[in-house]
Amino acid sequence: MWLNRNYEKARPLLEELIKLEPESAGLNYQLGDTSLHLETAQQAIHYLETAVKNAPEDMTAHASLGRAYVRVDRFEDAIPHLKAALSLDESSLYYQLAQAYQKAGQATLAQQTMQKFEEISRTLREKRPKLLEDDLITPPLDP
Asked: What does the CA dihedral 31, 33, 38, 41 come to, rounded to 10 degrees?
């Protein structure tokens, strides 16, 4: 259910599973991410912190934790997690990191990160027509 983004149905199941394995990095990430998607960022933080503590190499957990911190105005806490998650190559992380830098009073880093976000976004926009063209299904050619 979590993979299908059916967060309303996933939450009670994940809450039951986490009782059985409270230190599971995967379950903590999924429950925290679910809470984040359901607009309960403060509740998500506990689970996401546990996920990052128990699986520090999981960049998706870092990304979700950074996003949760941003939503509760903990910008300085968000920065290291968003930076760590940049390897996921999601342009939205650059935007959120730029916003966190700005709110944390680091204007130069905010500007540099926003420029990187704009470069990535521009590249994606330029590639989009080509990607769509590559996926076009055409009728077979007559011999």
From this structure: 100
